């Protein structure tokens, strides 16, 4: 099992280069360990059917299933850059490396090999296009934080389709110097930039190469969480659909497509169970799009679903021999989503928000005092955080890897997770086994 990460790569190379699969989908649920998958299925059973058990995700029903280890070359617990490099190249490296070895020399990726084999290639994600996991498939840089330099590697790879939230540092180098915007550089390299799903549909037919990102003004770091999604927000399923559409037009010699569900990791860094489970479900919706394509080309298509590492050390149960995942149904927004709600109330009430107004917002968004009954200790804890947050003093925001949230949002989420009997061991990554699922042409090679 501990060599399976190498096996993943070499099997992918085999099916790509030797024609065992004309179409290859490589789904990576960032931070999605075994318990994130199992917890999502148990959550679905409780909220959909009110029963104890599992309501399977599509990808867990694939005929091939196993596990893989995730340690990097120098750390028992990997980061997403080293893990992404391992998944993209089959080589272990140091944490923070983007498809370079310990000697800082570039390592060829499976996506680059697919391009050389004559296939079209797509690299997509629900976070920024220059984030660690997608970057590991097209870029070669010594540090994952070199966002501008990573973006400059995008046209060098010359892949056909890229998609995600946007770009983190489009005009600023790693050493914090102003630099020419990456967007004219993309356009000079022949890329059409589409902002939003409708813009993609308007531009796709005439485009030779495509970069699909969110509409102007949206947060370039990521798509919204599924639990917070508004009607016109770009989704991972739409990105997957667009990628298939674009990669199969014209001269169709097959494709290699990597799709990352990147915000599973973000939700787990924040120890936000309901949000994490919705992110896993959201990636499954993208996999459904790929599966529908597989059903049309069953003898030519391979779908592999895995992850780079587990995040948060999620625990399904905290002592009593039961879970109460039904409680998570009452959470209507993510922790960061509720932070935005509190911020809006601060503006409306000029930072003097009455407790009764806060109570109503907690009722509306977490079900407290309605579908979720609080004990005295829990209510006192919320009131204490409220008093401290609106005392007129500067507040300390709750920090996680990718978010800074209102203490009230963090406390409400913590209480609801506690009521659901879901626990967390950290706000970082862990070194546990991660799942691997496969279906289609060559899938049997992933067994054992």
UniProtKB/TrEMBL annotation:
The keyword Hydrolase applies. The keyword Zinc applies. Mg(2+) binds at residues 30, 131, 133, 260. Its cofactor is Zn(2+); Mg(2+). Binds 2 Zn(2+) ions. Keywords: Hydrolase, Magnesium, Metal-binding, Phosphoprotein, Zinc. One of its GO terms (molecular function) is alkaline phosphatase activity. The active site is at residue 80. Belongs to the alkaline phosphatase family. This is Alkaline phosphatase. The lineage of its organism: Bacteria, Pseudomonadati, Bacteroidota, Bacteroidia, Bacteroidales.
């Amino acid at each position: 099992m501990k060599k399976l990460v190498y096996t993943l790569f070499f099997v992918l190379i085999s099916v790509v280069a030797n024609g065992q699969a004309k179409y290859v989908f490589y789904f990576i649920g960032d931070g999605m360990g075994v318990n994130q998958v199992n917890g999502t299925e148990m959550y679905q059973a409780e909220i959909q059917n009110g029963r104890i058990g599992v309501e399977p995700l599509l990808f867990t029903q694939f005929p091939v299933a196993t596990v893989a280890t995730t340690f990097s070359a120098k750390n028992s617990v990997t980061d997403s850059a080293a893990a992404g490099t391992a998944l993209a190249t089959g080589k272990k490296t140091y944490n923070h490396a983007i498809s370079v070895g310990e000697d800082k020399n570039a390592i060829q990726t499976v996506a680059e090999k697919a391009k050389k084999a004559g296939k079209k290639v797509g690299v997509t994600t629900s976070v920024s296009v220059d984030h660690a996991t997608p970057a590991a498939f097209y870029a070669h840089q010594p540090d994952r934080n070199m966002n501008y330099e990573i973006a400059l590697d995008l046209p060098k790879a010359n892949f056909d389709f890229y998609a995600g939230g946007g770009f983190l540092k489009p005009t600023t180098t790693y050493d914090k110097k102003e630099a020419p915007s990456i967007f004219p550089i993309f356009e000079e390299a022949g890329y059409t930039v589409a902002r939003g799903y409708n813009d993609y549909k308007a531009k796709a037919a005439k485009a030779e190469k495509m970069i699909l990102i969110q509409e102007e003004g949206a947060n370039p770091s990521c798509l919204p969480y599924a639990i917070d999604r508004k009607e016109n927000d770009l989704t991972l399923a739409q990105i997957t659909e667009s990628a298939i559409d674009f990669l199969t037009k014209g001269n169709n010699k097959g494709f290699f497509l990597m799709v990352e569900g990147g915000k599973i990791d973000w939700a787990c860094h924040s120890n936000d169970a309901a949000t994490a489970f919705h992110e896993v479900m959201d990636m499954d919706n993208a996999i459904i799009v790929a599966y529908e394509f597989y059903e049309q080309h069953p003898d030519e298509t391979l779908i592999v679903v895995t992850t780079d590492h587990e995040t948060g050390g999620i625990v399904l149960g905290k002592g009593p021999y039961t879970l109460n995942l039904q409680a998570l149904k009452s959470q209507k927004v993510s922790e960061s989503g509720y932070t935005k709600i509190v911020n809006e109330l601060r503006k409306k009430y000029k930072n003097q928000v009455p407790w009764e107004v806060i109570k109503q917002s907690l009722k509306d968004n977490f079900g407290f005092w309605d579908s979720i009954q609080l004990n005295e200790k829990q209510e006192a804890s919320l009131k204490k955080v409220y008093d401290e947050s609106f005392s007129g003093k500067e507040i300390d925001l709750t920090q996680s890897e990718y978010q800074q949230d209102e203490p009230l949002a963090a406390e409400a989420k913590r209480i609801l997770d506690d009521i659901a009997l879901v626990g967390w061991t950290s706000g970082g990554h862990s070194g546990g086994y991660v799942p691997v699922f496969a279906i289609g042409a060559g899938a049997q090679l992933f067994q054992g």
